[in-house]
Write a structure and sequence with these properties.
heterodimer; A: alpha/beta; 13-stranded parallel sheet; 23 strands; B: 0% strand
């Protein structure tokens, strides 16, 4: 047998070879002086390693600290989140008690004084939405779908980590089904050609009438005693619907009678019959004929609106162009481009118009307004919630993405910054304290150093580092949050953590405070990590 | 080498004593594995808390120290995995596979190196986790390759390769420090 290699000899020396192999090597070693020497040396080396490593237990005395279960108990995500939100809320309440509460912009609609403004804002928003319907609807829908999908995905993953992948997926599917499905009732369903109801027919129940796959037009000439839900190309109601009418079509014509409320969404809506209660429509063109009468309030959002006929109660309109020719029993409120009242028009209550310029309100001679005329010109940008803008969600998405990429790079380049040492509540309290000191001390020190001309570069560098650390701070906390939630560490947990942190800092009322607390914690974690690294290097050198 | 005194009494009676007896050993292991005194203290503490909550699962047929060291090893390796962005820290290097490593320097002389226990430990702390951890488990915990492969979740032959390479790196470092290429 030729001499075994050193690797095999090492396994033999450590007693890690299989019995048969070990017997062969033993035989060889007995007859080969060189291998015998090598195996003896390897055994001695192993003994020496055991001795050297275990000697530390007698050579270097240590103090045995007290064992307390509170010291390093890992802090769960729930307690961490509760702590942060609690701190922010407590601070808000304290300042509120001392200096008075101010209602945040997001809750403005709760304030009764703001009610009318809110209505105006709502009308303006609706008007804007109509004008930019395509892009607004598409973008909003996409954003919502992405957020829901992302949330479901993250939740599914979290569940999969905690339970099994199958359980997580099943839960996700069930949730999606729950979200998508709608309640259904027993109804009279009519499709395609059968959707038309002849004048001789009377239906006692609620009717769902659809144009079918070819999206046909149909006419409801008969009588429906319940509600009518209709969708088609041209939907005409020449008969009677005793309940409510909800219709979506390219063109809607109501020549007959609707006993309840009419909800209509169409390119063109023409009303020439009678609507017993409210008229709520949205479309490019809304036309209420001279013969029409509306028993309740009328709310319309459209590009062009021509309002003839009789409106027994209020008329609320958002339009680029409103032409009022008919008779309104109570108030008229308008928001949009231009409103004109012809000589034949009559308003029983007040007229308020929210328009861009004074000349956008035209009242012809002969028009009667029983109450006051309020012209509301834009004075300032109306207070609207940032949560209602798509821009906000796009920016938050970009924010998550940049934080995520930065986080990946940061932890790849400086893995020591992963806050694995910060596990208990005490650790984070300490980090918060150190973070506060860092937050205050660094700028002060930078100013002091910067005063002397020589210190200026140091001052600038430290300010830049400080600003970078402030940005990294939240990523570091996000890593901890993600790890706590997912019970694992990795790319997905980092993303989940960043998502949660971005959601938290955007919460109304306390978001900015949470942001501040998270910066404190992260900054403290960075400072302590750097301090520990320096201190450890020093002890290692000694 | 001082082996800790084994306790055969029902463990719940004097966990305090167990803690005081074995703390040193567990802390040393954590220091070797984590290479950081602060993190080692936290880890040793956490290991004892875990041990206390799992006392029921301890089998008195085996030495208590082995059980405690196993809990501490598992915890430290979890910490290392969490710290490392790369989870498979003990996997073979790309392209190297399981090929037995080529022989390098000769084994360290027993007497010479034993006098320099401190140097050996310092050289050990300079090794990367990948080599340091299996070496510590093999020569501090005195675990078999099979036991180490269980803890690290890698194959047994991979453990053998890692330990062999770790010793080569150690010899190389010590050789450079002592101004000698090869030690006999």
């Amino acid at each position: 047998m030729s001499c075994p290699n050193e690797f095999t000899c090492a396994l033999f020396a450590d007693g890690e070879l299989h019995e048969a192999d070990a017997r062969l090597i033993a035989l060889h070693v007995d007859s080969c002086e060189a291998c015998d020497r090598l195996v003896t040396a390897l055994r001695a080396e192993s003994r020496m390693l055991v001795q050297c490593l275990q000697d530390v237990d007698v050579e270097e005395p240590v103090d045995v600290p007290e064992l307390s279960s509170g010291r390093a108990r890992p802090l769960g995500f729930a307690s961490f989140a509760l702590g942060i939100v609690g701190i922010a809320l407590a601070f808000k309440l304290c300042t509120g008690i001392l200096f008075g509460f101010d209602l945040p912009a997001e809750f403005g609609w709760l304030d009764p004084q703001e009610g009318t403004i809110s209505l105006g804002v709502a009308v303006n928003a609706a008007f804007y939405a109509i004008q930019n319907a395509d892009s607004v609807v598409t973008d909003t829908a996409q954003s919502i779908v992405f957020i829901c999908l992302g949330g479901a995905l993250l939740f599914g993953m979290a569940m999969a980590f905690k339970r099994t992948a199958a359980a997580g997926s099943m839960l996700g599917v069930l949730m999606a089904m729950g979200l998508i499905s709608t309640p259904s009732h027993a109804v009279d369903l009519r499709k395609g050609a059968a959707a038309s109801i002849p004048s001789t027919e009377t239906i006692d129940d609620t009717v769902f009438a659809f144009g079918g796959e070819k999206y046909q037009s149909f006419d409801i000439a008969g009588t429906i005693k319940g509600d009518l839900f209709a969708a088609g190309d041209v939907v005409t109601v020449s008969g009677t619907v005793e309940g409510n009418l909800l219709v979506i079509a390219r063109r809607v014509e109501v020549r007959g009678t609707v006993g309840g409320t009419l909800f209509g969404a169409a390119h063109t809506v023409v009303i020439s019959g009678r609507v017993g209660r409210n008229l709520i429509t949205a479309g490019d063109n809304v036309n209420v004929d001279r013969m029409a009468s509306i028993g309740g309030n009328s709310i319309t959002a459209s590009r062009d609106a021509t309002m003839d006929g009789t409106f027994e109660r209020d008329l609320l309109s958002a339009a680029a162009m409103l032409d009022l020719r008919g008779n309104v029993g109570r108030d008229v409120s308008f928001a949009g481009g231009q409103v004109s009242l012809t000589g034949s028009s009559r308003v029983g209550g007040n007229l308020s118009a929210r328009v861009g310029k004074e000349e956008d309100l035209r009242v012809a001679q002969g028009a009667t307004i029983a109450g006051q005329t309020n012209l509301k010109l834009p004075v300032a940008t109306p207070r609207s919630s940032r949560y209602l803008t798509i821009r906000f969600y796009v920016w938050q998405f970009i924010r998550v993405l940049t934080m995520f990429v930065t986080g990946l790079l940061l932890f790849k380049l400086v893995p020591a910054l992963v806050p694995s040492r910060f596990i208990s509540g005490t650790d984070w309290l300490k980090a918060g304290g150190v973070g506060f000191l860092t937050l205050v001390a660094v700028p002060v020190a930078a100013i002091i150093v910067g005063v002397t001309v020589i210190g200026l570069p140091i001052s600038i560098v430290s300010v830049v580092l400080y600003l970078m650390a402030c940005y990294f701070a939240k990523i570091i906390v996000a890593e901890f949050v993600g790890r706590s939630v997912m019970q694992a560490s990795g790319v997905v947990s980092l993303l989940a953590g960043i998502f949660l942190v971005v959601v938290a800092v955007n919460l109304p009322w306390i978001g900015s405070l949470i942001n501040f607390v998270l910066i404190l914690l992260g900054l403290g974690a960075i400072a302590l990590t750097v301090y520990n690294a320096v201190a450890y290097r020093r002890t290692a050198e000694i | 080498m001082v082996e800790a005194v084994e306790t055969r009494k029902p463990p719940e009676l004097d966990f305090e004593a167990i803690y005081n007896t074995h703390y040193r050993r567990v802390l040393s292991l954590c220091r070797y594995l984590l290479n950081s005194p602060d993190r080692a203290e936290d880890a040793a503490h956490e290991a004892f808390l875990r041990a206390r909550s799992r006392l029921d699962s301890y089998n008195p047929a085996y030495p208590l120290s082995t059980w405690l060291l196993k809990i501490a090893s598992n915890y430290c390796i979890d910490v290392l995995r969490r710290k490392s962005a790369e989870k498979r820290i003990f996997d073979p290097d790309a392209g190297q596979g399981y090929e037995p490593p080529s022989p390098g320097s000769s084994p360290l002389g027993e007497v010479l190196a034993a006098e320099r226990g401190r140097d050996v430990r310092r050289a050990l702390s300079a090794l990367t986790e990948k080599y340091r951890v299996p070496l510590v488990l093999a020569y501090y915990n005195e675990l078999s390759h099979e036991e180490i492969s269980d803890i690290l979740g890698v194959e047994q032959k991979q453990v053998a390769v890692l330990i062999f390479r770790a010793k080569q790196h150690l010899r190389h470092r010590l050789g450079k420090e002592l101004g000698k290429g090869r030690l006999q």
